[in-house]
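anyone seen this seq b4? input:
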Amino acid sequence: MSHIRKNALALTAVAALLAACSNSRFVGNEEYGTDNQREMILRQTGGDPGASGLVVFGVDRSRQNQAAGGGGAGMTVNAFLWRATLDTLSFMPLASADPFGGVIITDWYTPPAAEGERFKATAYVTTRQLRSDGVRVQVFRQVNQRGAWVDAPTSAATNSELEDRVLARARELRSQSAGLR
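predicted toks r here
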């Protein structure tokens, strides 16, 4: 058998093996809504930062990982900061969230009182410890000028205020979790 045939056969076998191992499923329409997406993320990350985290291969490693900073199994960010960030930004529609990378991106949000402007936020949870420098929030603003959305500056104080709210909520969640034990 030639080397080309052997390589092609090996490639086909690997592709078939990977296809058999895939965990594909159809996504229902109800999973696309913002609230449902947020709830799915909270379920994946344990929902309650003081409760069990992610279950990996049927093994709940939450007690081991809580001692290492409150994260669930496999989480690389602090669960209290993660949940607090989701809670703090919950008034904005959620575009995406990566609990392993610690990135939360919201979709554009138009406050009811300001119809000519909209806001979007990106939050980064950067540590496994509950620290004041463990979260960074960046808010983006656009204003409507003659039917077109144009980028506009935001105050640095806005970013700081959101970060302070996240930290306060994270401390509250940690206190609640400590009271349950």
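Residues 156-180 form the longest helix (25 residues). Strands lie at 55-56, 59-60, 94-98, 103-106, 117-125, 135-145, 148-152. kinda curious what u guys think
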